[in-house]
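Bench log, entry 3. Co-assembly request; chain sequences pasted below exactly as received.
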Amino acid sequence: MISIRTRFRTKKEGREKSESTLHATFMRLCRNPTAVFGGIVFIILALLVILAPWLTPYDYAAYDTKNLFQPPSPAHWCGTDQFGRDILTRLLYGGRYSMSMGFIAVGFAAIGGVSLGSICGYIGGRLDDIVMRFLDIFQAIPGILLTICMAAALGNGFDKVIIALSLTRIPSIARLMRGSVMKIRGMEYLEAAEAIGCSKARRIIKYVIPNSMAPVIVEVTMGIASTVLQLATLSYIGLGVQPPTPEWGAMLSDAKRYILIKPYMIMFPGIFIALTVLSLNFLGDGLRDALDPKLKD
Amino acid sequence: MGKYIIRRLLWMIPVILGVAVFIFTIMYWVPGDPAQLILGAEGTPETIAELREKMGLNEPYGVQLVRYLKQVFIEFNFGESYFTRRSVGGELIARIPRTVALGISSMLLTILVGTPLGIMAAVYQNRIPDRICMIIALIGVSMPAFWMALMLVIVFSVRLGILPAQGIDGVSSYILPILSLSFAGWGSQARMSRSAMLEVIRSDYVTTASAKGLTQREVIFKHALPNAMIPIITSAGGQLAHVFGGSAVIENVFSIPGVGNYMIQAINTRDYPIVEGSVIFLAIVFAICMLLVDIGYAFADPRIKAQYVGRNSKRKVAAND
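Structure output for the full assembly:
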């Protein structure tokens, strides 16, 4: 039965086949308990952050001088800060900055890295040499230092921080994409595409990129995780988002002054950062296994 | 082998030059006028213009860049701080021992903890110890290092009062910085060791070793581990980048007067010569460390060594022809 179906595969069934690869990947992902756990935690966090205005009765910016430095209690689950603002409320609103900036920065980096990597990997030659040497220079400066310098040079502001975060992530994505493209460069289907008269640009967009995206998808998921960390670090040393904006790193930077008397002010933002990053890492790890079953063992 | 080392050393030159050009360029475009910064509130338009002229800030970008490169790479002079007027090079030399001590010891700790975790995960692949090791590893990667540092300070300095929270007096003040800096590395080291070990465990000679009746312990420690060591050492080299970058933030948290903290403070005061000097300096130290790691494993791996010996003799043959 199966052999007949494959022998007489119609166009419609051919499309079903490609859907089923996606489906199979998804099923493999669903069978991985840590990945499912990561996915669920991330969705919950994202929902909490998006629905923040409906979930909390407090205002994240309004001062409440009667309730300064309240320790965690039923009224304020994570306590209040030096201005009496509810910390949980600030964490939920702050997640909007941390998560969206992480996503946007990595999104830009992915666009830049994938196009650079696929062009270099597929076309090769002089261009490839020059770009790769340029990336060598970028990578000679240890990761976070590069981000710190870029952020310092560009100055404050959400857009500038996002630019700094995404520029520093481009080299690793480009390198990965290039390696992945080079593996498929000699494949027959690319020769076939060339033979039927596809232009270079069309070949890259239609065949090269979709067929070498798998490792990049993993890198991007993990990249969001580490960008959230980097953003927190930048804000902590005063280069990212500035207080009183309730970004997680900025909150930590603010809370550091009270480390001796109010340790809970430091504990909760860190837990939120760690949970977000951990869930994305679990998801990325599961994606790696699901996209490439060979790598798993 | 000698050729390999020389080629790697020569390749360092354009990379470091590139780093210098790059960092000078981004600092050049930073908004704000250094002359204005130095003179502060006391500066009048005339004195600012005079200082700009004296510092050569009115010259075009290219001239300033070449002058800076000449100063750094020919005179080995990183300039002086805008505010304290102290030589940046001297300060860097005075600070580097602390950064290196912090970096090397946290790298050692990372290797000592991460590698066994990864090996255990590989040996018990897909069983409970594997899952536990990998979850610990991922948790380590997911925590911000500076937050980890703050939490350690809360527990060991504020609550228990047994370790100092700031500065450096004696060995005990290095314990918390080393712990918080290495914690993030455990995960990636464990992950790399796991995959290196898994690759070896599936090879034929390991199957043979267990087939001839060796105990699992003997198979793992005598046959699998020595062969997995090369990729494990390589991945440990990758930890360097992490440690060098991370040390800046950790030094800042613990107020350790190292290179990284020097740089971060300079960024906040906009003392550009310090920022440029520190980045170039760290890039050089980083490149040298990477080179040492590369040479180290080229020596450790007979295959890589043979590759170079083989290539050299081939070349000699070709030359004789």
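The first helix of chain B runs from residue 2 to 28. Residues 11-73 of chain B form one domain.
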